[in-house]
UniProtKB/TrEMBL annotation:
Source organism: Cyriopagopus schmidti (Chinese bird spider)
Name of the protein in question: Translation elongation factor EF-1 alpha/Tu
Function (record text): This protein promotes the GTP-dependent binding of aminoacyl-tRNA to the A-site of ribosomes during protein biosynthesis.
A molecular function GO annotation: GTP binding
Family, as annotated: Belongs to the TRAFAC class translation factor GTPase superfamily. Classic translation factor GTPase family. EF-Tu/EF-1A subfamily.
Major localization listed first in the record, in broad terms: cytoplasm
Keywords recorded for this protein, A-Z: Cytoplasm, Elongation factor, GTP-binding, Nucleotide-binding, Phosphoprotein, Protein biosynthesis
A Pfam family recorded for this sequence: GTP_EFTU_D2
Length: 221
């Protein structure tokens, strides 16, 4: 794993050719060193789901969360969905160090102007007010797979949905179709119920407004 073994003379190692570089080696450590980090979605609109909100003496209201897409900088005018609250970011910190910008993957706290700690909560999503700000919705279409459920699930079933940091009850307004869980091919239209092992396309209706995004636009929202 760390050094080539004398007991494996038959093993010639591995090699990888990329557009930017060429790598080879024999050990696991060399393979890990040769890995290229994934590109971060810096060019997409800012999305930062709030994990918590704190009130810090001498500073003010400090929301905390991880940047999923885009860039957060001090001075940015941000909008919080689903409440459509707009304010300015005064400062951004990570591990008690001030940042000039926060990029996807950074867990940060940021101080906002003239906003009470009671106006923000876990599950809200922060975005740039000038670049496709996040919006609220209470209706959307989702694909679900029933992994383990003791009975049948029909229209009107109301589970709790965990989406990014939000935790909200959603009612199954309509089960539109039953589909193959691997290929997505339609198997039955408007089924009366679904059960364990089934995959389906449904129209949920959340009990309160929330912020969701298309899967291809933002994987975690």
């Amino acid at each position: 794993m760390l050094e080539p073994s004398t007991n494996m003379a038959w093993y010639k190692g591995w090699n990888i050719e990329r557009k930017s570089s060429k790598s080879d080696g024999k050990t696991l450590l060399q393979a890990l060193d040769a890995m290229e980090p994934p590109s971060r979605p810096l060019d997409r609109p800012l999305r930062l789901p709030l994990q918590d909100v704190y009130k810090i003496g001498g500073i003010g209201t400090v929301p905390v969360g991880r940047v999923e897409t885009g860039v957060l900088k001090p001075g940015t005018v941000v909008t919080f969905a689903p409440v459509n609250l707009t304010t300015e970011v005064k400062s951004v910190e990570m591990h008690h160090e001030a940042l000039t910008e926060a990029v996807p993957g950074d867990n940060v706290g940021f101080n906002v102007k003239n906003v009470s700690v009671k106006e923000l909560r876990r599950g809200y999503v922060c975005g740039d007010s000038k670049d496709t700000p996040p919006k609220a919705t209470d209706e959307f279409t989702a694909q679900v797979i029933v992994l383990n459920h003791p009975g049948q699930i029909s229209n009107g079933y109301t589970p709790v949905l965990d989406c990014h940091t939000a935790h909200i009850a959603c009612k199954f307004r309509e089960i539109k179709e039953k589909c193959d869980r691997r290929s997505g091919k339609k198997l039955e239209e408007n089924p009366k119920f679904i059960k364990s092992g089934d995959a389906a396309i449904i129209d949920p209706c959340s009990q309160q407004a929330m912020c969701v995004k298309h899967l291809q636009t933002s994987l975690l929202l």
